[in-house]
From TrEMBL:
It comes from Paenibacillus allorhizosphaerae. This is Site-2 protease family protein. Keywords: Membrane, Transmembrane, Transmembrane helix. The chain crosses the membrane at residues 21-42, 77-97, 109-128, 148-170, 190-209, 215-239, 259-278. The keyword Metal-binding does not apply. The keyword Acyltransferase does not apply. It comes from the Bacteria.
Amino acid sequence: MVNMATAQSDVYLNPELRINLFSIASIAVFTQFICSVAHEVLGHALMAALSGGSLLHVSSVDADYNIEHLTVGLQRLIHSAGILMNFIVGIVVAIIAKQLLHASSNTRYFLWLLCHVNFFIGGGYMMALSFAGFGDVDAFVTGLPNPVFWKTALTLIGAVISFATLKHGVRTLDPFLGNEYGERRRRGRALTIFPYLVSGIMSVIAGLFNPVGMVLVAMSAAASSFGGQAFLAWMAAFIRIRKSGEPVELLTPVFSKTWIFLGILAFIVDVVVLGPGLPR
């Protein structure tokens, strides 16, 4: 157990108190991979298959299926399944995180990141792409009476979810930040802005291998990662001075061969396998 009262003065000298960026990058890559699988594979592709549709193609950034013979209700469910699955995964992970308060710092950070990124992706789709004229939300509202009302309502709901997730994320990130304000800001940037950039770059790289081409990279890979997850990067700006109270253990993601292996494995699968898509 590391006492916060002594941690601040030794944060650069004690390796156990320094955030390891290799592990953070690996955790971010693994998190992004799970979120992509949740949205495209477990969401759109699985729901299309369970509903009687024909899966044509699924990748890390899109899913294509033949569902024209299905009822309109089932079609809308399939179109919204990616967003719904991100929310479901986020809720499940939040519940798990509350039960694993004695897990390692790396595992707790992974659960924190996975929970909030899933909510940011789901909320981002609803907020940013409601009026885009393409994508999940547009397909969902097509054919509904007064589509402008539905798009406006979904945009507002997405904004509420995203801001609520940001607020919850800042509060639950506190054990990783420490006491001193400057150190809190530095650690906060390493735990939010850095994984945001890593995840976005990974999504774009995987999207480059998609046979649809650069249009999909711009509309889906870049938009959903750099755009939809922008609230993750904004968290750093909301970190404040820690309220007075008893010092608590400072949680620090440290170097981990296991997490680095998982990150490399996730990157390979996401880029080499899911990048071009399946089946081929």
